[in-house]
Amino acid sequence: MKRLVLVAVSLAGCKGKPEKRAIASDAALARVADAGVIDAGPWPELANLPSVEPVRVIELPARPDVPRFTVGGPVLLGDLAIVSSSQFGFIAADFRRGQIAWTKAAGSHLAAPLVVDGNAVLIGDCINPPQVSESDRLLGCMRIVTPAGADQAYIAIRGKQKAVADFAGATGEERVWAAKKNVVWRRGEHAIAIDLMTGIAAPTTAEDPPLVVTYKQKTWQIRQDDEGVITAKGQPAWHTERSYGPLLGAVYLPEQAPMVRAASATRRSGKPEILLFDMDATGSLHGQVSLYPAPGIGIIGHAISVVGDVALAVRLDKTLQRDYIAGYAANALLIWTYALPYMVRPDPVGIAIASDAVVVFHDGDTLTILPEVSAPPTAPGAVRVPSENATP
């Protein structure tokens, strides 16, 4: 197995920077916090970084009197950004026009929306629980919806009592993904595979699907373990000798082999920051670290495009009230930052990247549409859509 060595490379070129808003001092921020006022920032740590204003903000009709047990999304389906919340069920919003396209009711607990074969798959508690056989256990209901909002199916998710008992009683982080003709629904350390046609569920591995990278007739399946070590199965196989933060996805730069991108929290001169690390997906010693760190202590949401543009939701400090979005191009150039509203934010921030926008779902009731994060065509390493992409 080969050892990966990361070396810094210089990245140049930038977009025109939008006019910055006034920067609040630390004392002013303290007064704002004491007064209980929500302030959108930006924060002093971002003063010397490029910033943007939203293209639009879409307020969603959430019910604040209903507990917000879970939120999920966004997932993109054409012009639609589909999100889920215990406070409104599922909402599909046209993020390019700023309009709500359709809504679907759901129970108190639901999973993140998923797109399969051009339709939305919506999983959650049943509104009116159907009858199932005594040998089965009802786990929820699955709705399959066309982009226009028409219901194609509404199916009870059920499995044999003993077989699905562990999943039914599990708690923890939830995730859904497509797997052949099934949808996998993971909850904590347990998962079930749901047949899309019948809704019949059976236990399956709870391991996240690998990041699959294909290059010159070779394929690598790339995973990250609980310790943060990244391992690739392929020819040649390789693994990192250190741990990283979240594995973000694959990057495709012109005339280069694909790279695997991860992010990690570090400290420099006593200040916390987030760095992007790229390593050759094919197992060579080539690698790079971004020269444009993002100030902050951790990542509370992220997304990557098919070419490697990245948007990160970064937490600035332990107050849990100062978070922002950092947009990086595939060449690891920091394109812009955007400060989220100043408020306690217990829920993760959902992000999706379209060809011309970054869609952010935050605070359970808001979609903020931000500009694209592609590098200017004249910048070194500016990319085009690859012919060989990673499989999510």
Question: What can you see in these coordinates?
Answer:
The chain has 392 residues and is mainly beta. The protein has a domain at 1-65 and 210-392. It has 2 helices and 29 strands. It has helices at 26-35, 161-168, and strands at 56-59, 71-77, 80-85, 89-94, 99-104, 114-116, 119-124, 136-145, 151-160, 174-179, 182-187, 190-195, 201-204, 211-215, 218-224, 230-233, 238-239, 247-251, 259-268, 271-280, 287-289, 294-295, 298-304, 310-315, 323-328, 334-339, 350-353, 357-362, 366-371. Strands 18, 19, 20, 21 and 22 form a 5-stranded antiparallel beta sheet that branches. A 4-stranded antiparallel beta sheet has the order 1-29-28-27, with no helix packed on it. A hairpin with a 3-residue loop joins strand 28 and strand 29. It is globular. The chain starts with 25 loop residues before the first helix and ends in a 21-residue tail after the last strand. Mean pLDDT is 86; it is low at 1-41 and 384-392.
Gyration radius over CA? 22 Å
Strand content: 35-45%
Largest sheet: 5 strands, antiparallel
Distance between the termini: 24 Å
User: What best-fitting shape do the alpha-carbon axes yield?
Assistant: globular
Count of individual helical segments? 2
The SS-based structural class is mainly beta
Mean pLDDT: 86
* Unreliable stretches covering 5 or more consecutive residues: 1-41, 384-392
Helix content: under 10%
Would you count the extended β strands for me?
29
